[in-house]
Amino acid sequence: MTEQAKKRDAMIGNNYAAKEITKDSTLYIRVTKEQKAAYCNAANGEPLSAWITKTLDNKVKSLS
Questions:
Q1: Which of 3, 27, 51, 60 suits a disulfide with 43, CB 3.0-4.6 Å?
Q2: Ranges assigned E (strand) in the chain
Q3: Could you give the CA distance from residue 6 to residue 33 in angstroms, rounded to a whole number?
Q4: How far is CA 62 from the centre of its chain?
Q5: What is this structure's pTM?
Q6: What confidence tens digit (pLDDT) does each residue in 18-64 have?
């Protein structure tokens, strides 16, 4: 593979990894199996972390 092709491939990879907002903090919680099952059910196939973030953000907005 040529040097130019390597650079092109590296740029494509970086574009796919680009995010609108970089997440720079982590939130860990412990829940029961029943709680997690209920959250997964409520998320209706959406990734759980995305659903939890959206749900918490909506709650914070409703309090302001």
A1: 51
A2: none
A3: 46
A4: 22
A5: 0.64
A6: 667 788 899 999 999 999 999 999 999 999 999 999 999 999 999 98
